[in-house]
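quick one, 155 residues, struct below
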Amino acid sequence: MNTKTSEVIYSEEASGEALSEENHVLGVGERAGYNSSLDDKALSAAISKLVSNVMENLLDSPWQAYLLTSEDSQFFMSGGKDQGIKLDDEFQVLAKGKQLKNPQTWQLIELPGKKIATIKVLDFVDTGNNSLSITKLVSGDIDNSKLTDYVVREL
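---
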């Protein structure tokens, strides 16, 4: 859900199934009654499927980070080793795309951004809960006063 617009941008559902077999041959054996553990097993299967569906959707989404600040010709980017970023990795810096209202659905959509620069990872900073990458400009131009208007994506 988009917390600014209350628009639902993704939803998922899943179902689960659990089976139990009882044998009854020629009047010999036990008859199956209600087994409440099947409810728990079916619910567990549904939750596992739901989590799998959500993870697959997240992995299909493009990875992105943000420039947080600059200091001494270096840029601090959100994301670090914990996100699989390595020294010397290069990323493209994009100016955010223009936002438009779709006249059919009345929902806001963002057009693709324009590449304005390339940055390269020099080092990492671990602040406890957050990992940051220290980067330098390889090509292009980044306006320090507009850092929050940029998105960083893999090349």
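The radius of gyration is 25 Å.
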